[in-house]
From TrEMBL:
This is SURF1-like protein. The keyword Acetylation does not apply. Its main location: membrane. GO terms for cellular component: plasma membrane. The keyword Nucleotide-binding does not apply. It comes from Rhizobium sullae (Rhizobium hedysari). It is a multi-pass membrane protein. Belongs to the SURF1 family. The chain crosses the membrane at residues 12-34, 224-242. It is found in: Cell membrane; Membrane. It comes from the Bacteria.
Length: 250
């Protein structure tokens, strides 16, 4: 390489460096701005859920109409009346207040011969079998009040175990399998769940009111991180520029 070529390459180096710095800076600022937008979205979602949960319960038919119209029914208070089909309850593996056990999902036969799967609440591991909590196996017409919950479109993650239908242990809420494993026709099953409220059951089991709303909101922290990295990059570039000027002036 000739002296002229070496000089031209050195001259072009700051240009390429500047372009790379601008691209990196644009990416970091974009990521920070995206996190700010996510922050506003998450705060709005949390406020919306809090407003829903504080609203008055509406009849099951109203929630069904909302779902049919495409509205979000998650965490909306609802009330339903029917008879529990206790011999078809399904058990969802869960941890509640530090204890291992199950959420008991029992079909509630409502008007029209349809079935609504109700999360009646938590029972400890040793009380999985209905015979260990017979007073709580409600019979006759019952009215349940709780929160509507969407069914899952599929398995949440590959790390979640497969449901053990034979042992009646579910690790994710597969409404269709819950229904078919009890011999119910899927067409007769209401296409969402209801989490029962904390109204006490006889002898205390199942323990209702177990719905947890856990929506992590770390977007502000992430935004500060990305903007902070952008600021650090600017500082590094400025320091390098001043050092470079100092060397050329000597």
């Amino acid at each position: 390489m000739t002296d002229i070529e070496i000089f031209a390459a050195r001259r072009n180096l700051p240009v390429f460096t500047g372009i790379a710095v601008l691209i990196a800076l644009a990416i970091l600022i974009s990521l920070g701005t995206w996190q700010v937008e996510r922050l506003y979205w998450k705060e709005s979602l949390i406020a919306d859920i809090a407003e829903r949960r504080a609203s008055a319960p509406v009849p099951l038919a109203d929630i069904e109409r909302m779902l049919a119209s495409g509205a979000d029914i998650e965490y909306r208070p609802v009330t339903a009346t029917g008879r529990y089909v206790n011999d078809k309850e399904r058990h969802f593996f869960a941890t509640w207040r530090g204890r291992t056990g199950y959420y008991v999902y029992t079909p509630l036969e409502v008007a029209g011969g349809r079935y609504l799967f109700v999360n009646r609440g938590f029972v400890p591991f040793e009380n999985k079998e209905p015979e260990k909590r017979m007073p709580g196996q409600l019979t006759g017409e019952q009215t349940v009040t709780g929160l509507a919950r969407n069914k899952l479109p599929g398995k949440p993650s590959w790390v979640v175990p497969e449901n053990d239908v034979a042992k009646n242990i579910f690790y994710w809420k597969d409404l269709e399998v819950m229904a078919t494993s009890t011999g119910l026709d899927k067409a007769s099953v209401v296409p969402f769940f209801v989490d029962a409220d904390s109204t006490p059951n006889p002898k205390g089991l199942p323990i209702g009111g177990v719905t947890e709303v856990d929506l992590p909101n770390n977007h502000l922290q992430y935004a500060f991180t990305w903007y902070g990295l952008a600021a650090v990059l600017v500082v590094i570039v400025v320091i390098s520029w001043f050092r470079g000027r100092g060397r050329t002036s000597q």
